[in-house]
């Protein structure tokens, strides 16, 4: 997934610019704003990358919370290999 920085209310977040596998299969769409992974709030791409490197392994299933328009949705993504 390729990310871009967006303003979400008073905070800056990251949003999906291009959605690739496995996020696409899980249901994440272009322009979804990433809020959290496994209950850890995410504010930028570097934080997301560090979380994935330090706390996950390929094949692990993680919950990803996103904001789509005015609804907060949770998807379950099976992580691909590095």
Please give the CATH class.
Answer: Mainly Beta
Largest sheet: 6 strands, antiparallel
Number of strands: 6
Total domains: 1
| Through-space gap between termini | 13 Å
Write the layout of secondary structure elements.
Blueprint: E1 2-8, E2 11-18, H1 23-26, E3 33-37, E4 40-41, H2 45-55, E5 61-68, E6 71-78
Antiparallel strand pairs: 1-2, 2-3, 3-4, 3-5, 5-6
Descriptive account of the structure:
This protein has 82 residues and is α+β, with helices and mostly antiparallel strands. The protein has one domain: Pdz3 Domain (Roll). The chain contains two helices and six strands; from the N terminus they run E-E-H-E-E-H-E-E. Strands 1, 2, 3, 4, 5 and 6 form a six-stranded antiparallel beta sheet that branches. The longest helix has 11 residues, at 45-55. The protein starts with a strand and ends with a strand. The relative contact order is 0.22. The mean pLDDT is 92.
């Amino acid at each position: 997934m390729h990310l871009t920085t967006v303003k979400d209310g008073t905070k800056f977040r990251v949003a999906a610019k291009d959605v690739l596998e496995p996020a696409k299969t899980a249901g994440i769409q272009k322009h979804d704003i990433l809020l959290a992974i496994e209950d850890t709030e995410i504010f930028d791409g570097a934080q997301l990358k560090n979380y994935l490197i330090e706390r996950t392994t390929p094949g692990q299933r993680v919950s990803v919370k996103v904001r789509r328009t005015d609804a907060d949705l949770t998807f379950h993504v099976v992580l691909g290999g590095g």
